[in-house]
Amino acid sequence: MIKEKENTETTANAGTKAPIIEIKNLHKTFGKNNQVLKGVNFTVNKGEDLVILGRSGSGKSVTIKCIVGLITPDKGEIKVFDENVLELTKKELNEIRVRIGFLFQSGALYDSMSVRENLAFTLRKHKRDLSADEIENEVMEALDNVGLTEAVDKMPSELSGGMRKRIGLARTLILKPEIILYDEPTTGLDTITSREISELILDIKQKQKTTAIIITHDMACAKLTADRIIVLKEGTIQAEGTYEELEKSEDEWVRSFFE
């Protein structure tokens, strides 16, 4: 059943599994008048891929940045792995972050480092007990997961947009996160490459048993990856349901995303 023009807590359609992410009454204002989030509520169940849709400025990216503590909300509650993120110490928050992968829209690679060095840097920062051989094995396994082992010695400037996205994803996967937050994973890519990235998101879910939130404007990506979709409008949840339910919505604004 589709929920429209409500801002009550949504319920996942993934059986009786307990939520791995819980967002309650989330508010965030920038400056004096730019209220981006106005009481957002939703849950994500373990093993679920949730897509968040919305126009630019609707609060999509702000929401997932709040989840990992990159942005502090003005009010609300964020629970991840049953821990209240807003009450954690810096050390406790960092321990949570290691279990959450964040794929930034740009890929966020270090331009002065090779692909190998980009991935190894992440490992050395978070897993200091690994030997050089173990780091190399982890790097190659992560690249194999995204189909780019041959790019290990390339510099970011030598990579196409699609390859940069894949390497960024490999760097995210190298810590074997339980949750992955994808911020516009197909933006700027051609149709074929966008589909390849969407299929890779599905493949990762099946192989790594991850849970994900996917921020996207790409409706082909949403259709392929989403177990469930929520639609944000001006900082509140306008609708929630499956792709098939929402494309038949009686709300003309919601339906406009699917046309």
Automatic annotation (TrEMBL):
Pfam families: ABC_tran (PF00005). PROSITE patterns: ABC_TRANSPORTER_1, ABC_TRANSPORTER_2. Keywords: ATP-binding, Nucleotide-binding, Transport. It comes from Flavobacterium limi. The lineage of its organism: Bacteria, Pseudomonadati, Bacteroidota, Flavobacteriia, Flavobacteriales. This is ABC transporter ATP-binding protein. Residues 21-259 form the ABC transporter domain. GO terms for molecular function: ATP binding. SMART domains: AAA. The gene is ttg2A.
